[in-house]
Amino acid sequence: MSGDTRYTIGDLARRTGLSVKTIRYYADSGIVPPTDRSPAGYRQYGPDAAARLELVRTLRDLGMDLATIRRVVNHEVPLHEVAAAHAEALAVQIRVLGLRRAVLTVAARRGSGPAEVDDLHRLAQLTTRERGHLVGDFLNTVFEGLGDQPTYPGVVVSMTPELPDDPTTEQVEAWLELAELCQDPTFRASMRRLARQHAADHDVPGLPRPDAVAVVRDAVAPALAAGLDPTGPGADAVLTAVTSRYARLQGRPDDADLRQRLLDRLSVANDPRRDRYLDLLSVVNGWSTGGAVTPAVVWFIQALHARMPQPPT
Fold this sequence. Notes:
By secondary structure, the protein is an all-alpha fold. The chain has two domains: 9-77, Multidrug-efflux Transporter Regulator, Chain: A, Domain 2 (Orthogonal Bundle); 126-307, no CATH class. Helices cover 67% and strands 1% of the residues. It has 15 helices and two strands. The protein has helices spanning 9-16, 20-28, 49-61, 66-73, 79-110, 114-124, 128-143, 152-158, 169-183, 185-202, 212-226, 236-250, 256-269, 272-285, 294-307, and strands at 36-37, 43-44. A two-stranded antiparallel ribbon has the order 1-2. The longest helix is centred in the first third of the chain and has 32 residues, at 79-110. The mean pLDDT is 87.
């Protein structure tokens, strides 16, 4: 193609697939100015006009504004710098859209009203620092007064959600529900009682030892997997294994008082929201889920109730 080739707007429209009106607008905007005019006064364009128009269309499809495009095609700013800045801006937009999608998904699933949607939106918009304050207040309430025990700082860290900078929709949804749990006064009180129960079970001489929930979980898992009836005679051996081990760990006799103590502790622990918190925590932090204790606790409470003396009627 010779260097003095000239194209009309109609020629460029046919070559690029853009409309004459669009090309004229880009020309008037200084993005693809005409090289000169014909004797009749029609605009004429040089051989690089089609390539410039293709670049303009690509950049517009990528969402760049015309002012930025003008600077790129006029070589006022390197394209790679503009691309990097634009990619970063798009990443922010994508994250914002992901948060909005998560809020709307949760709201639609729940059939939320305006007030709940406002709360969900507020929780989704919290900064990292604000999320840390919300969770920190919850965990401080749960473990207040127990920090002098060497195991609790590690427990607090293991219960702290860390939403990544680029979370998935599932992680945002999990964060929204977890944040609501952290603010629920009844859940906070339940977890506080559970923490103190755990501390009491460990307040015995010797090495660290499992608490009541851990003892039940370990012993009952095979019975659950086998579908064993907690009220049937086949559960007697499981119940005896739990109570005798718990008695040894506590340095107490395996009697009615110990079984009542065990029942009291399991009743406090029998809050499915604890398992839900841990499942949500695993999703937010990208950990594997599983290890629910509620089914084992429920099974053992039924087994224990069935074998405890009933008050006279």
